[in-house]
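Ticket opened by: R.M.
Priority: normal
Category: complex prediction / small molecule

The reporter submitted a protein together with nicotinamide-adenine-dinucleotide and asked that the result be attached to this ticket for the collaborator who will pick it up next week. Submitted input follows.
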Amino acid sequence: MTQILDGRTLARTCNKAVKVKVESLARPPGLAVVMVGNDPASAVYVKRKGVVADRLGFVHRQIDLPADTSQAKVEEVVRSLNDDDAIDGILVQLPLPKGLDSAAVVDCVSPDKDVDGLTIRSIGYLAQGRQLLAPCTPWGVMKLLALADVNLSGKSAVVIGRSNMVGRPMAMLLEQANCTVTVCHSRTTNLEEVVRRSDVVVAAIGQPKVVQGSWIKPGALVIDVGINRLDDGSLCGDVDTEAASVNAAAITPVPGGVGPMTIAMLMENTYKASCARQGVSAG
Ligand code: NAD
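Result attached by the on-call engineer:
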């Protein structure tokens, strides 16, 4: 039987643990989400983050800026949040509208409030394996993999995708878990061959069902980060989940896998950042 790595249930457990710990803080953690423009998918994600933050008792602020906001203005907003004592975590919802330099905006986030773990400094810490705040999606994937209760040490892993937000930090975390990691991307010529020999497959491509079921090695752990909307309005991942389940020992569903864990890790990071700023142990 293939194990379904249920991100919804795991996220609920993580959120509950944070909620309990928040009650003993002198002041609630504060999360600010900056949204520029009105990309419909981003609007849905931002709304979900706000709902969970409210539920956990966080102070939550959403800053909506019009799509034609200048680079200088967006950076000024981020810097003002850096100076805001009630705010412990700042998330800039990506992608930003065309014409804005996302990397420059993200790098304005103070490292101690970088709950998305995406600034140059956070990624540098991650590369050295001494991060306080790991990028939410890859960190959520590591927690999902832990559900499978398989020792990752010595396993061969493939990460498909090399984005700064998902693929690259994902490869670092798997390597730190002692996997032997191969990173594939749009120019990789032997994707099928690499997937076929991998014990762990993490797909972060953004194209429906690129990874075929027959490619999955018997007993592999399969994590599908991709979220793709099909013409009929339904969602699917980058993996052909049904076909992959024949060989996989464990697999994440889409939706209900990585997505809820990304939000849960954002909450955990905000709690940790708040503890650090309040001078108490995160427990
Ligand atoms: P991205 O577009 O920045 O990166 C995609 C990567 O896929 C690139 O590195 C590219 O080289 C690679 N790629 C493209 N086509 C390929 C192919 N045919 N074969 C192999 N590699 C290929 O995207 P991203 O921000 O890394 O996100 C990837 C996917 O994950 C998207 O669907 C996104 O919506 C989803 N996502 C989900 C969550 C979540 O919480 N579930 C979080 C972040 C991103």
